[in-house]
């Protein structure tokens, strides 16, 4: 099963690359704003962080906001999903060959996230700028809270001593439904990693099992979500491509140091920044309404 998923992931990498490059070449005179080097560095840093479990969506949103690379918040969900698709697929290729998870659990949760992302991306591309700002703001706050709970072991406490590498019965159904919603929320900017890891803990699985599940889920859903974002022109081509080009080396390098890397202080710093950025986006949405 790991070999089958491996080849599917390789196929998705090729599909995503063709889809993105084709759109960029067709609109080479309209790539959008942004600096290639700055966005490439953002991709490297955020996908490095993604590989070691911090996540990339909230951090990318924060860095794009600070560097003022993105001029249209309506395109932010598309930038996140299209730009990080290939780096996340690369992560999934690495982890699915290293950590063994029950194949039924792995495949059904991945499919649930993919279906959720399809419905989510069709909904998100129709939202107004004010709605996007509001959803992104709350998405960041939710992500920060879940990360903080995980760091303080409030969530981890529920999973202490868990050894299961798969789900059955009612727990499998809950996992499928949960990953469907997490997949939909990914297209609004809520990273799937933290909620998926929390769910895995609470359903009795070992935390180790979360890595291939969450990474393969994101790897499967982002190319699917990208179809709608690219079709609707709801993303910035230059920013997304630069993030992709910088992100892949970030993933490869991070995977080499993952096991021995202490990220506790870095994660707490990121949580504080994410809280701040989330509040800023919520305030921005209110200003837009007032205007």
Description:
The chain is mostly helical and 291 residues long. 74% of the residues lie in helices and 0% in strands. Belongs to the 4-toluene sulfonate uptake permease (TSUP) (TC 2.A.102) family. It is found in: Cell membrane; Membrane. It is a multi-pass membrane protein. Keywords: Cell membrane, Membrane, Transmembrane, Transmembrane helix.
Topology record:
Layout: H1 2-26, H2 36-51, H3 57-67, H4 76-83, H5 85-96, H6 103-124, H7 129-151, H8 169-186, H9 193-202, H10 210-231, H11 237-257, H12 264-290
Helix pairs in contact: 1-5, 1-10, 2-3, 2-11, 3-12, 4-10, 4-11, 5-10, 5-11, 6-8, 6-10, 7-12, 8-9, 9-10
Beta-strand segment tally: 0
Number of helices: 12
> Overall mean pLDDT score?
84
Distance between the termini: 54 Å
Radius of gyration: 18 Å
Largest sheet: none
Reading the helices and strands in chain order gives HHHHHHHHHHHH
Using the alpha-carbon principal axes, give the shape: globular
Uncertain spans: none
Give the helix level as a range of percent.
Answer: over 70%
**How much of the sequence is in beta strands?**
under 5%
Pairing-aware structural class of the strands and helices?
A: mainly alpha
Observed structural traits:
291 residues, mainly alpha, globular
Short structural description:
By secondary structure, this protein is mainly α.
């Amino acid at each position: 099963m790991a070999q089958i998923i491996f080849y599917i992931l390789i196929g998705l990498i090729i599909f995503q690359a063709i889809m993105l490059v084709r759109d960029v070449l067709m609109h080479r005179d309209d790539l959008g704003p942004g600096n290639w080097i700055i966005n490439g560095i953002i991709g490297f840093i955020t996908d490095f962080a993604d590989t070691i479990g911090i996540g990339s969506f909230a951090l990318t949103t924060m860095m794009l906001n600070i560097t003022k690379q993105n001029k249209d918040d309506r395109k932010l969900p598309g930038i996140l999903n299209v730009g990080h698709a290939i780096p996340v697929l690369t992560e999934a290729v690495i982890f699915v060959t290293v950590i063994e998870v029950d194949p039924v659990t792995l495949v059904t949760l991945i499919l649930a996230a993919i279906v959720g992302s399809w419905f989510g991306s069709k909904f998100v591309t129709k939202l107004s700028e004010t709605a996007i700002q509001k959803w992104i703001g709350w998405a960041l706050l939710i992500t920060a809270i879940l990360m903080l709970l995980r760091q303080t072991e409030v969530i981890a406490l529920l999973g202490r001593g868990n050894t299961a590498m798969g789900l059955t019965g009612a727990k499998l159904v809950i996992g499928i439904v949960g990953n469907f919603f997490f997949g939909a929320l990914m297209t609004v900017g809520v990273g799937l990693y933290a909620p998926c890891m929390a769910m895995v803990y609470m359903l009795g699985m070992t935390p180790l099992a979360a890595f291939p599940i969450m990474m393969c889920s994101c790897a499967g859903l982002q190319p699917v979500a990208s179809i709608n974002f690219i079709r609707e022109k709801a993303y910035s081509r230059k920013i997304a491509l630069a993030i992709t080009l910088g992100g892949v080396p970030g993933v490869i390098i991070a995977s080499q140091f993952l096991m021995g890397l202490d990220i506790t202080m870095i994660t707490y710093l990121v949580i504080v920044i994410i809280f701040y950025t989330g509040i800023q986006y919520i305030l921005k949405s209110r200003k837009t309404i007032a205007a």
